Amino acid sequence: MNNPPRLQIESGKAVLTGEWTLAAMLPELPRLQARLTAGGLGSFSWDLSAVDRLDSAAAVLLWRTWNERWPADLIVTETHRRTVERVSLAPAGANSETVTARGLVERIGDLMLGSIDNAVGLVTLFGQMLLDLWYLARHPSEMPWKESAANIYKSGALALPVTGLVGFLIGVTISYLSALQLRSVGADLFIVNILGISIIRELGPVLVAVLVAGRSGSAMTAQIGVMRVTEEIDALAAMGISRSIRVVLPKLLALTVVMPLLVLWASAIALIGGMLSAMLQLDISLAYFVENLQRAVPVANLVIGLTKGVVFGFIVAWVACHFGLRVKPNTESLSTNTTTSVVTAITLVILADAVFAINTRNMGIPQL
Amino acid sequence: MSVAEKPPVVEICGMSTRIGDRLVHRNLDLRVERGQVVGLVGGSGSGKTTLLRQILGLIQPAAGSVRLFGENLGAAGAVAQSALLRRLGMLFQAGALFSALPAFDNIAFPLRELKCLDEDWIRRLVNLKLAMVELEVEHGKLMPAELSGGMVKRVALARALALEPELLLLDEPTAGLDPDRSRSFVKLLGQLQGELGLTVIMVTHDPETLSGLATHIAVLADRHIIKFGTVADVMSADHPFLAGFRDGDKSRLL
Lengths: 368, 254
Fold this sequence. Notes:
The complex is a heterodimer. Chain A is of the alpha/beta class. Helices cover 72% and strands 7% of the residues of chain A. Chain A has helices at 22-25, 29-42, 56-65, 78-89, 104-138, 145-155, 160-185, 191-229, 232-238, 243-282, 286-296, 299-325, 331-359, and strands at residues 6-10, 13-20, 45-54, 73-75. The radius of gyration of chain A is 35 Å and the shape is elongated. Chain A starts with 5 loop residues before the first strand and ends in a 9-residue tail after the last helix. Chain B is α/β, with parallel strands linked by helices. In chain B, the strands form two sheets. Chain B has a six-stranded mixed beta sheet with strand order 6-7-8-3-9-10. In chain B, strands 2-1-4-5 form a four-stranded antiparallel beta sheet, with helices on one face. The longest helix of chain B is centred in the last third of the chain and has 18 residues, at 179-196. The interface between A and B is large, with 38 and 34 residues.
């Protein structure tokens, strides 16, 4: 590297000395290139005998300077000639594929086909789950208890702090904002109804579903995805172990079981947050709040909330497993599928929430 | 400038490596001069790959120093560090190809990172590298997941060679190649070595690669280099591991 590439051009004769390697050329590449092209045109005689080293990058540079023809008068050592020769023999064929921009119709069509494909995949996964459950009912010894317990712990017990914290903050916020409104119309006592119904019936389940989709759903997709990338899924299949029973089913079971419990936990903490805020803002005592909660919120709301928990939990795990199994063995696909998994899960959860809202519109609203 | 004045390509002095609670190397010394092709042998789990990662600066030594081309990689600034790393190429055991890029772009990646070569230049160089490792231009379009195990290895080698580095680190270069390819790999590397004066450090268990290519052998056992010398020297040395290796070598040749 202490011997930079040098180029001397005199009356049609070009003399190259020094180290002609990529690393050595790099500092003054544009200048060298310009001088070569300028001088190369008029030069017919090339002297490379004093070149210390010549790598293929430099050989390409020379070959291009010579317009892909051997110069008539060339002095070069045998090893360097071989290097240039290899360059001259390498195919120069075009390799960059041009990506054509696709029209709007084509993209819409792609999107629709993709959605249909996903829908079919989801239904197939659901069917596979039913088949697995039927199989397990006949072979109870093959129930994946360990995996299910591990998943319950990971997506349930470990999610308690974050769901609790978010629930508490939401409870405080809603209570605080509602209190401002209610006080202005003198309806302070309705804070119990507002908090009770909104948190138990609506906010608790949706909030937890969004958190769990981001927390456990993405983890499930990524885990199954990496198992696809590293061929672990295939290794399971090679051992004759059903991937759907060992990998997919425990996740579905775990989230379905754990989600209503998380909803219960998050709703309770949110109510506590709301109670505290109401006490500070509206001077409503905790005892009054608890006493009135039973009256203001019929138990049907709790049933609806927990049922939503079950359904949302299943949706999140179902979507997560589906997209996990679609991961192709490359990093790009892994990241796309994880993103799609979380987005789809949250969208489907909110869709399901709307269906719940319509179908349960006559239930659990106290008649005043 | 004579070769003798140049600092050794790799100089490791009294290095210890600790991974978690485990001491992988203790007081390890290694000095590789320019132009040497060093075969690094040792039992499985003896820390050969860790030593390569150590040379690359992917792991910091717990004690001692690693010098590349006479410079301490860890102490160098960001610019000096990348300039230093540009002078070496690494072939990882499993290829470590970028899975989101086709083979062509994998090989072109280090060239494009230089940001001063034009597309035509890069294309010629990549095609040349593909031809060097006996792959067709067509193979450049395939994604790493679509390549066979041996092809992954060859694309990874082509990527390691993309910048024609002065120092080449190879982790099991011929494992997974068929004997023919393995032989042509040895030939290719020998040729490059002759033309460019490459320095090579390779982890290998293949006696054919060792005898065909290596000028020196370093034996890693008991957490340090127990023997370093020319092939003939090392093969005649007395150590239980070497004895086992020789026996294996003989039975293979028979």
